[in-house]
Hints:
The complex is a heterodimer.
Chain A: H1 2-10, E1 15-18, H2 25-30, E2 34-37, H3 58-69, E3 74-78, H4 82-93, E4 98-101, H5 110-126, H6 133-156, H7 160-165, H8 171-184, E5 192-197, H9 203-211, E6 215-220, H10 239-251, H11 265-274, E7 279-285, H12 289-304, E8 308-314, H13 321-335
Parallel strand pairs in A: 1-2, 1-3, 3-4, 5-6, 5-7, 7-8
Helix pairs in contact in A: 5-10, 6-8, 6-10, 9-13, 11-12
Chain B: H1 5-23, E1 27-30, H2 37-41, E2 45-47, H3 49-58, H4 62-71, H5 80-91, E3 104-108, H6 114-126, E4 130-133, H7 144-165, H8 171-193, H9 204-209, H10 212-216, H11 221-239, E5 250-255, H12 263-272, E6 275-280, H13 281-284, H14 297-306, H15 314-327, E7 332-338, H16 342-345, H17 348-351, E8 359-364, H18 374-387
Parallel strand pairs in B: 1-2, 1-3, 3-4, 5-6, 5-7, 7-8
Helix pairs in contact in B: 1-11, 3-5, 4-5, 7-14, 8-11
Amino acid sequence: MEKFFKFSKFFEVVKVGYLCNYTPKEIIHSAGFLPFRVFATDKPIERASAFIQSYSCSQARGALECALQDDFFAFVFTRSCDTLMRLTDIFEFVGKRVHNIEFPTKIGNVEYYVKELKDFVKVLESWGGEVSFERLMESLKLYRELEEKLKKLFSISPDYETAIKVQQIDVRSAIKLVDEKLKFAKKEEKPKVLITGSVCPYIKVYDLFKEAGFSLKDDICTGSRFFEFSYPEFEPKDLESALRYIAEKYFYRAPCPTKHYPGDGRFNYVLKLAEDCDAVVFLLVKFCEPHFFDYPQLKEKLEKMGKKVALIELEFPVVSLEQIRTRIEALKEVIE
Amino acid sequence: MRKLQSSERMRELMAGYYMQGHQAEFNAWITSGAPVELLYAMDIYPVYPENHGALIGATKLGSYYSDFAERNGFSRDLCSYARCDLGCVFAGTSPIGGLPKPTFLFACNNICNTVVKWYEVLSRIFKVPLFILDTPFIRKELKESHLRYVEEQLYDFIKFSEKITGRELEERRLKEVISKSIEGVSLYSQCLLTARNKPSPMNCFDAFVNMAPIVCLRGTEHAVNFYIDMKKELEERIKNGISAIEKEEIRLLWDNIPVWYRLRWLGEFFESKNACLVADTYTNAWTGFGELKSTDIISSMAEVYTLSYLNIGMDRTAEIINRLIDLYDVDGVVMHSNRSCKPYSFGQYEIQKKLSVPTVIIEADMVDERIFSEAQVVTRLEAFLEML
């Protein structure tokens, strides 16, 4: 395996797959691997159904399908939902090299998570990677640059194709790609819709909103939640403080419903995002419990704010785009 | 099936337990895997929405109450315990007249992350504080950092409940409760172990029906007394050669939460095939709480509750099931692929390949009877039993 690693490293494509946005990709990158976010693809789910039940979400089944067909060196699972928690073992069962990071469900205890990250560094080293303070700082800098540029791009005109692409290429190439996109980005004055939900790697779905005459703002795991962070204010001085920096960066990022935030942080975040929007669309993947539990009460609060709300349930691969188009067009008519 | 007399006593005991809840000064809604001992030690009455969900399932009212939640926007794909519980809150009643309004909520995610979301919803409805006891998932090794993380939270929880109730947790009282908890779990385990006898004096349906005291009354004299009597009854049965079913030819193990609305039907089906489900992974999960120590209570609590059956990796789960297979000398395993419980069900396809005896998987749901397809289940089980 080490031979494979050295060979692949020459071409800089030692892919370490990850599924959850809370995965500290900076550490993976600094160790010399390519952090590669795994999504469901356009291909039908065939082999994965032999390993996990049909009532698992299609993102989980799609990612497993992808893992069974692709050449990943390893996979990193970060604790989020119950499905991912079990998926780690299933990946290992089908012969994949895996590691699970126990990201706390309850946001608060940084000390504990720093220890978990230290253990993760050791795992990466056991996989043949090398993590040093200097390299980690370089990765932190690069990812921050990418995140800030994506933020800028999205503030002008959200580009989901780019947001998804950058999660599967090297961070330096990703920065170049966003720079290119920034050159041509134009702001559009159209009714604005907030889309909120879990993952949606299907660009066509976003296109449907644009085609219906909406401009977009999002709280989507494959969109803004990839790059919305509150950065800690201290400057790391050594490896341990750099890990603490990462722990805090990920604790206080755009919140996900798989985490428990004090003071109902997740709801307040979405309500704030919705303030300048004309409507809100919940774009939820079927069987995604964390999002579906939030939906009724969050919807009620949004409606109290005077927002029009719609729910679109997705399953990957998306086979009925026209149905989704009808829903979006109906929403547009209601607003008008 | 030969009904245990203890089951009748259990009903009376639990009726008393539910009645008490409406009179308690403070009560906390708590998840089934949370350390209830802390509540009893502070005289805070524990209310179990999951047990309530099971009761609704057993009365075949799962879809009826779930419908109230679904009409309020909660998806039919969510856990049916949660849907039923929320449905009862919206309906303002339940088969037992509804649960008392909580003083606060206490959820531990050592059984699933669903409870975190479910209790967040409850917290918004009742506008009461929620404490989440966050246990890391122990896929491989239990690390010192995991234990310290949970231990710190247990101390936080004590402060949290002391602040709300104005009561102080007394060490002496906690020790008493822990000692009762250990005693109760030990007696409960001995009851389950009587099923090692051939033929078995009880089956898993008896265990399901009589597990409520170990869940809800763990740490009290009531649970201890109940299982003393149940053990006596089971030992009497062994002495007198009375078995759970008429003719025990095949011994089986059940995996996952019961199909509550089909307990009797499943019991009769297996009996008609001379098959006895002598043990199950669900009720056995509570035997692990017997590892609590009466010294160094909080750190032992952190360890025991972090290592709960649903909070461990697949290798360990398969090891435990194989141990149960040997212990109860079973010929096969019936796995309930439970649409409502992802952490219990995902991984079953892999676990079955690690087990030492043949297995069958049936698709159902613990409470929502709309999911159950009788013909499909019969076909699968009949083929499996013939093969055995």
